[in-house]
Write a structure and sequence with these properties.
The chain has 377 residues and is an alpha+beta fold. It has eight helices and 24 strands. Strands 1-5-6-7-10-9 form a six-stranded mixed β-sheet, with no helix packed on it.
Length: 377
């Protein structure tokens, strides 16, 4: 698909952006309830509606419904375009290439648009299925949804802001129109490129907790120096994920955001002081040595920094072949950070171990060693 640019005026009300819904219809609906979009507001969905979550078809249809209001704008994401390719057999996404992909996603606990379409069309999914026959059916049965994804622009620009899912080499968006859209959608760690812009560029694609070296936060990552804001809260891939919506001020001012977490809160009963000099293990920086296994918790050493910390055993893995062959062990995102907690604080609990709880207070994840309750003390 060739890159396209759309422009719009600043809305009379709020300008709001979200991204990386990744098939999580429940979380998307929760966020929409929190936003309470009015007719004077404008909402921009900065790509990646599809893949990983339980209902990519549902998210696409909800987005289509919202665009009918005239004040909701959806951009393409890399997962949206690749999901369509797998669904209808474009760019070599045929036969066992498709079932290898679907099964690989399932191994990581993720669903796919292809699987969603199989389910709705009443086609039993299996590795030995006739993929071509399914794709021919999907091209007809889901034509409206397919055409919607293929119609999505790559860039959106307002007088004060720019939007693209992955990244762009400069703020002159016009010069990239007509190039392969995927060039601007699948750009990992974009902020680390060091590119600066005259007005804020809103992106997704890279989970925001990957930018922090100290502790894990899934809040929007705002780089004022470069004028870049990353919204990707890690939905469908990070255990402490949240779906973020940022409110972009007109004419300057503070950035504020609203987040849907999709998890009930518990309440702290004990105080805890934040730890100093924490280290955040994250993708590409998460090779560890196992020092000991203590039931459901492991004492590990972070190879890159030498820091010793605990992690839930379920976060340790060696499933990536190049690491398994080399005898290395990786650990999913975890930090040594102990949260700053007061009695009565709201916490979201992700792991309960003999060492303590892996919890989230607000947008920040870390360890809590105290007691919790279902009721506020």
């Amino acid at each position: 698909m060739l890159a396209r640019l759309e422009r719009m005026d600043t809305p009379r009300g709020r300008l709001i952006a979200t991204s990386d819904i990744h098939g999580s219809l429940k979380l998307f609906n929760e966020l929409l309830e929190l936003i309470r979009l009015t007719d004077e507001d404008a909402l921009v969905i900065v790509g990646d509606m599809c893949e990983r979550g339980e209902d990519s078809l549902g998210v696409i249809r909800r987005a289509m419904e919202l665009t009918g209001r005239g004040n909701v704008h959806v951009l393409a994401g890399n997962k949206d375009l690749s999901a369509i390719e797998y669904a209808i057999g474009e760019n070599g996404r045929v036969g066992k290439t498709v079932t290898d992909y679907v099964d690989g996603m399932r191994e990581w606990g993720c669903s796919t648009l292809f699987a969603d379409m199989c389910r709705e069309a009443g086609i039993p999914y299996s590795y030995e299925m006739d993929v071509g026959a399914a794709q021919r059916l999907f091209r007809d049965k889901f034509r409206t949804e397919i055409d919607f994804i293929k119609s999505l622009p790559t860039f959106l620009e307002t007088p004060e802001y720019m939007f693209v899912h992955g990244g762009v080499p400069s703020g002159d968006l016009e010069q990239y129109v007509g190039r392969d859209a995927k060039e601007f959608l699948d750009w990992d760690d974009f902020i680390l490129e060091g590119i600066c812009f005259d007005k804020y560029l809103i992106v997704g694609h890279t989970p925001t907790n990957l930018y922090r070296t100290d502790y894990s936060s899934n809040a929007p990552y705002i780089c004022h120096k470069q004028r870049i804001i990353d919204l990707d809260g890690g939905v469908g891939i990070k255990f402490a994920a949240q779906l973020n919506a940022i409110i972009l001020p007109h004419g300057g001012g503070d950035f504020k955001w609203i987040s849907a977490h999709g998890r009930d809160v518990r309440y702290a009963l004990d105080a805890q002081t934040a730890s100093s000099n924490p280290v955040n293990l994250r993708w590409r920086h998460n090779e560890v040595e196992i020092l000991s296994i203590e039931g459901d918790a492991a004492r590990i050493r972070h190879v890159e920094t030498g820091t010793e910390l605990y992690a839930p055993v379920t976060l340790l893995y060696d499933r990536i072949p190049e690491y398994a062959r080399g005898g290395k062990c990786l650990c999913d995102d975890i930090s040594s950070y102990e949260l700053d907690v007061q009695p009565g604080d709201e916490l979201r609990i992700y792991f309960s171990t003999s060492h303590g709880y892996v919890a989230k207070k607000g947008d920040i994840s870390g360890w809590y060693m105290g007691r919790i309750s279902d009721r506020r003390p």
